Amino acid sequence: MVAIGNIHLENAKAVINAGADCIAVVSAICSADDPQKAAYELKNEIVK
H helices within the chain, ranges in order? Predict the structure, then answer.
């Protein structure tokens, strides 16, 4: 199952823990001042 919509750094891990096999994060990365940093932080939060 892919989760998409309103996923951001603060809830990404909870979405995975709730059963999503993967997440699709668009606005949290694309609207960030530094999209590369935002993607890196999301990845690190998920793999903790």
Answer: 12-17, 27-30, 35-46
